[in-house]
Design goal:
By secondary structure, this protein is mainly beta. The chain is built from one helix and six strands, in the order E-E-E-H-E-E-E. The model has no long low-confidence stretch (mean pLDDT 91).
């Protein structure tokens, strides 16, 4: 059975700006805009970002997901992948000291 897509929530992989997760607001020829976005620095429990989107991560001392920002604008030319996040996958902040 396929995982249900979380409405509008996506992972965006960029060439230079890293990996972000948030709600897709807009994507055009110039900008990709996310609201309620977190940056994913590193994770355990998944082999790829596709797996992160479908199954989530292990929320332990290794995993780092930044605090949420209200909005982030990424250049569309830097955006190389947009992956829908499955319903129920928690990719909110995990930032241990």
């Amino acid at each position: 059975m396929a995982a249900k897509k979380s409405e509008g929530r996506v992972i965006v992989r960029c060439l230079n700006a890293g990996v972000h997760v948030g709600t897709l607001v807009k994507r055009d020829a110039v900008n990709t805009v996310l609201k309620n976005a977190n940056r994913i620095w590193r994770w355990r429990g998944a082999n790829s970002l596709s797996e992160v989107a479908m199954s989530g991560v292990i929320r332990n001392e290794y995993t780092r997901i930044s605090v949420e920002v209200p909005e982030i604008t990424l250049t569309t030319s830097d955006t190389c992948e947009i992956i829908p996040v499955a319903e129920g996958v928690d990719l909110t902040a995990v930032h241990n000291e």
